[in-house]
Amino acid sequence: MRDRRGLFWAALILLLLWRLLFPAAAAEVRDWAEAALWPRGGETVAAWGRALGAEEERIPALLPGAGP
Amino acid sequence: MKRLCWELSPGAALAGALLLVLLRPEELAALALAVLCHELGHLAAILALRQRLTGFRARVGGFSLDYAGDAGDLGRALIAGAGPGAGLLYALAASRLGVALERDWLCLSAGLSLLLSLLNLLPAPPLDGGQLCACLARAALGPARAEGLCGLLSTATGCLLLAAGIPTLLRGGGAALLLAGLWLLVSSRSAEAASQRGSGK
Question: Quick one: closest CA in A to B23, which residue?
Fold first, then answer.
């Protein structure tokens, strides 16, 4: 168990270092992850937030992929 | 006064690092505020019901506040529901403020809080909705029937998310729903197995 914990912490440190040292690569990975998991997910969630505060705005469909 | 027990699992730390990589700083701050409001809701209910806070755990599946005391099933249901409730209230307040002040960041935080709260209300064991369902079912039906009903609900929820996730993925909508359904099914099975081991079945 101790060895596995050490691996986790090592992976965490490597991930953070990679993020700091290679910001362009991290941005590419971020874009790829967004496309793979939920395209335009950030925009959709922000649109839901705006819709809550402004009744006159059209509420977009709740499922991912539909978009605002 | 006893010290609080703090636990940060390595998986949770790694998940946090992944979020640092995948989210922009403003997105991370928006999410952190939504999560904070959610947890403060739980904490407020724990304190209001005069329960003793014993610990704070951060795991891959999320955060949890441990408490001790005789809250009863209805009290525990209230504590479980307080997090999503606080999140929904925060979402409403942040959205109105965001629209009034024209701050996209606040609208994003409101949307994240809304998503987090609605997801947490799903009736599956690792989520607040699962605990809420279990407590209310125990109070109404008794422990044995409640366990069966909650197991059925959590499996159905996972299957529904899977069923929605597959066509969403095929339409180019991403794998998030599918992965959420898989995670819920696996977590439900783990919770069920742990419960059966605990009862000696």
Answer: A30
